[in-house]
Amino acid sequence: MAISKKRKEVLAKLEADKAYSLEESAKLVKEVTFTKFDSSVDLSVRLGVDPKKANQMVRGTVSLPHGIGKTVRVLALVTPDKEDDAREAGADFVGLDEFITKIQGGWTDIDVIITMPAVMPKIGRLGRILGPRGLMPNPKSGTVTDDIKDAVASVKAGKIDFKVDKYGIINTTIGRASFSEDKLYENAIELLHTINRLKPSAAKGTYFKSLHISSTMSPGIKIDSKTVPGL
User: Which domains occur in the chain, in start order?
Assistant: First the structure.
């Protein structure tokens, strides 16, 4: 199969099987991105854990210093006394029963749902719709809380949640191709340090098995974890 001119340019910039430093990778991922739109930049982290065991599950949240370059649409499912707090913090949609009805009808045009412990019994029946889309609120990710104002503000400012999949991989967006390499580097550092702090005591051997950075439609660039300060 013929290789396109742009693909040849990309491959010429990368050495096969070479693991680059995190700093080099943050620069390279911008150089090998040729999409006409502002591509997302993702970090893929393969961990030495067995996610089928509850004591080796890795899940958490992180507030990236530069956000992810995307407007996050937040729905606050709250009681009337918390509606003003949600709106003041920047929630895009605020309410309760009317939005539960909309979701039951198939509406999921949102990125994050934040709610309160007292409301969770009502939201539980939406699990079949929200669960597969990664929208189900969860206390561990800070999306089920009585401090609605802080939770909404944190998400709007760039807080993301992540979870290891069944293959032991965490894959999450850390920015856009339009970000400077310094911003991508600093966001990656914040995410990796957070994952490192969450290392399960039951996990043995090498924790960070492999790291790759990529943008939409670009090849993955291998990162040498030894070049990441603090790991």
Answer: 18-67+160-227 (3.30.190.20), 74-157 (3.40.50.790)
